[in-house]
Amino acid sequence: MAVLYDFVTLTPLEAACVIEPPPLPYIPGFLAFREGPALAAAVRRLTRRPDLLIVDGQGIAHPRRCGLACHLGVELGLPALGCAKSRLIGRYAEPAAERGAHTPLMHLDATIGAVVRTRNGVKPVFVSPGHLLTLDDAIALVLRTTAGFRLPEPQRAADRHAAACKRRLLAEADV
Prior knowledge:
By secondary structure, the protein is α+β, with helices and mostly antiparallel strands.
C-alpha cells in the first residue's frame, strides 16, 4: 500500500494498493524480501512521484544496516526513513515523556537511529534513516508528520487504506 500525502497540509492525495502473495513467511530482519516488491509496485502505481518515503519498518536500525526503508529508497531512488513501532536491534535509554524527546538507538557503539516520543506520555517510535536522509532529518520529518497520533499521518493512512483494500478483496472473494 502506498499513500501519497501533501506534506504541507498533511492530507492524502492518492493511494495505490498492490496485492501479491508473500514470497516467504515473516522472518525478523527479512521484511524487505517479503513486502518490498509489493510496496515498490504500489509506489510505482501512483500517478505522481513522491518526494519522500515514510516506511513502516526499519532503515539502518537493522542487523545488516539495510532494512525495508533502505531497500525501497535505493530501489526507487527516493529519500526514505523507517518509522517502526518496535525495536529490532539496539539499546537505548527511554526518552523523556514530552513530545519531541528522543534518545539515540545504539548498536555496536554506533548510532543507528533514535527512539522518538511523538506524543506526550505515549510509547515512542523507532526512527532510522533509510536512504538519502540524515538521522536528524528523519527525526524532524517524523515529528512534522505526527498530528496528534503516535505514528506519522501518511503511515496511519497507509494502514487504513491497506485494511480497506483487504476488506474489498475478501468481499470480492465471497461473490
